[in-house]
Q: What sequence folds into this?
């Protein structure tokens, strides 16, 4: 019968210290082990040469390091984007995307296996949600990307919690991940280096505001009125725009952070001039940015992206209305870099 080992990845240094102390190791070893796992990317205890050999062997008998394994990967022709399908210890897999910008390397992490939000334009939700990721499993995605970047003498500079899954539906594990990344013995990342994207879970937004962390909040808006947003995003039936925008305003007020509103432009669905004018009305006098995103087509949805003329027209109306808005830089279109597309392709191929 296989021995079930305790996974140390995802624990804070004091938690590691407490659990290894029960096996006779000195408590100060907790920080050493944490630094090996998080800062040096150790995937097994044998490489932890600052620990005596007998202690490394003891750790190996009783504990594990929850490293992920690559199941599939794709790299954009222009080198800007790399997408990885990473297998977890139970065989399930999640997507992680590396985006190279002029200002640094950003990693987009998943927080759930699949997604239960049901947004009609997103591939993540096609197969539903299977389970939440642990804080360690979310962190393992960043550690893998850091290991990948070492060959280029580079590292992750910022994290976007915008991959598969709804982060605020997995609140405790996501918060653990953020706080752990902030620790000096882990990745020593500023809270301002994190952007968390939500479909609009109002209680989660208020709870996040109460944490007092200067994390950037991004809200998936995608339509400027309740009727059309509900068609695109079922969550709007539970938390309509009025409640969502009020929660976002509270977040901006408490944190002093400008909220980003993501608006996926879908041809002949939400890209008309009237939508742009309604969006101006919603965003007026708000501490906000609008990020326009021409949709990445998903074959099952039949949704198409508008042409450049339509996108530019939409942006012009926002600018003329005094709204701070940009069009997201195209990254990874040739490798199906939108949320859930690679995982869905692998699942579909395995069934055929």
A:
């Amino acid at each position: 019968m296989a021995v079930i080992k305790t996974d140390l990845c995802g624990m804070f240094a004091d938690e590691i210290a407490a659990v290894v102390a029960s096996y006779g190791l000195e408590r100060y070893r907790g920080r050493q082990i944490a630094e090996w796992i998080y800062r040096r990317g150790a995937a097994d205890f044998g490489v932890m040469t600052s620990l005596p050999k007998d202690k490394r062997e003891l750790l190996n008998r009783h504990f594990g390091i929850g490293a992920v394994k690559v199941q599939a990967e794709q790299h954009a022709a222009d080198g800007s984007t790399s997408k990885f399908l990473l297998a977890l210890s139970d065989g399930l897999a999640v997507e992680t995307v590396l985006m190279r910008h002029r200002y640094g390397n950003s990693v987009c992490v998943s927080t759930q296996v699949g997604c239960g939000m049901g947004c009609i334009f997103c591939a993540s939700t096609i197969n539903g949600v299977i389970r939440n990721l642990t804080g360690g499993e979310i962190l393992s995605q960043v550690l893998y990307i850091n290991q990948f970047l070492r060959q280029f003498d580079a590292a992750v500079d910022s994290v976007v919690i915008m991959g598969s899954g709804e982060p605020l539906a997995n609140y405790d594990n996501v918060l653990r991940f953020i706080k752990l990344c902030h620790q000096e013995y882990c990745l020593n990342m500023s809270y301002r280096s994190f952007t968390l994207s939500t479909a609009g879970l109002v209680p989660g937004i208020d709870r996040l505001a109460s944490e007092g962390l200067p994390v950037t909040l991004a809200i998936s808006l995608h339509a400027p009125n309740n009727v059309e947003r509900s068609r695109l995003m079922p969550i709007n039936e539970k938390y309509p725009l009025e409640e969502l925008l009020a929660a976002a305003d509270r977040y901006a007020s408490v944190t002093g952070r400008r909220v980003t509103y993501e608006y996926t432009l879908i041809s002949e669905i939400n890209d008309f001039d009237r939508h742009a004018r309604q969006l101006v009305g919603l965003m007026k006098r708000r501490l906000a940015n609008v990020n326009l995103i021409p949709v990445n087509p998903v074959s099952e949805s039949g949704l198409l992206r508008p042409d450049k003329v339509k996108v530019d027209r939409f942006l012009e109306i926002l600018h003329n209305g005094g709204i701070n808005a940009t069009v997201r830089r195209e990254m990874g279109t040739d490798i199906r870099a939108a949320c859930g597309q690679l995982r869905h392709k692998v699942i579909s191929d395995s069934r055929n």
